[in-house]
């Protein structure tokens, strides 16, 4: 199921755009991730794709249908796990699934099998008849996930699926997502860069409702954050500052030096497309030419999507 979004713009107040002229295409049988900070427009976009929110302008095509005009078709195709799990707290796990299955038109003949399978998948068989309000956050998330799958939709949309869940539940959810993409299109909205990095085939980084960049996570990291990233905290006297800036900026075009709150301390961040040991040796040699410079700490690591976000927007994903 291909999804096409063209020139989509959405505003709640007519002043600021929650979605700002967004265009992109989502291919089938892959995990397509929207990575962006809180308020970047992820939930708004999803609500438009699911037909829960009328758009102001632009085109949206979900598997050949316009969500605004053919909500019933969309409902058959799309399973949504909303940001707030939206389960019925006073119903049991089983009752929640039954309600959903009926609403989404799962035929009576296989409803019970589907529900039992779903409970097993969520590892909640033994809690089937317990009310949801007795469940942990992780259990609720797992239940919300299988509930969205109960009518076997082609497209699965997950809005912050691991927000506030424990590590174990998170890993289970990640594994499920990886299995499901064999025959489903999965849209994953998240502000966890490691989640997008780990799961996404394509990652759209968004900020203020705008598409900043779209590519495979590994390509984004190489392109915008280098193959390796060297980070060093150094201390150097005020009068050496100019010399330090000149020399380092001249030698490394991609270097960033920030002055820290602590007196005379600087944070150096240097992305590069060379091997880690080469970068380390070269950088060490360079800073040795400064007589009264001391190295507080030094590390070389693989860049993350957070580094990509920082490079492209000047801010961190989450403060
Ligand atoms: P995200 O899901 O990425 O956190 P949202 O889509 O929820 O982002 O929000 C995008 C922008 O739209 C934010 O500025 C938010 O404050 C605003 N917004 C979201 N929902 C509403 C609403 N129902 N009414 C008014 N403004 C909203
Ligand atoms: Mg949201």
Fold blueprint:
Layout lengths: L2 E9 L5 E10 L4 E5 L6 H8 L7 E6 L8 H7 E4 L11 H11 L4 H14 L15 H12 L6 E5 L7 H14 L4 E6 L2 H7 L2 E6 L2 E6 L1 H9 L2 E8 L5 H11 L4 E4 L5 E8 L3 H13 L5 E8 L3 H9 L6
Parallel strand pairs: 3-7, 3-8, 5-6, 6-7
Antiparallel strand pairs: 1-2, 1-4, 8-9, 10-12, 10-13, 11-12
Helix pairs in contact: 3-4, 3-5, 8-11
The structure holds adenosine-5'-diphosphate (ADP) and magnesium ion.
List keywords for this structure.
Alpha-Beta Plaits, 2 domains, 36% helix, alpha/beta, Rossmann fold, four-stranded antiparallel sheet, six-stranded mixed sheet, binds adenosine-5'-diphosphate, binds magnesium ion, 319 residues
Account of the protein in words:
This protein has about 325 residues and is α/β, with parallel strands linked by helices. The protein has 2 domains: about 5-220, P-loop containing nucleotide triphosphate hydrolases (Rossmann fold); about 225-300, ACT domain (Alpha-Beta Plaits). The chain has helices at about 40-50, 70-75, 95-105, 110-120, 135-150, 165-180, 195-200, 215-225, 240-250, 275-290, 305-315, and strands at about 5-10, 15-25, 30-35, 55-60, 80, 155-160, 185-190, 200-205, 210-215, 230-235, 255-260, 265-270, 295-300. Strand 1 and strand 2 form a beta hairpin. About 40% of the residues are buried. The model has no long low-confidence stretch (mean pLDDT about 90). Magnesium ion (MG) binds near residues 42 and 83. The site of magnesium ion has 4 residues, from helix 1.
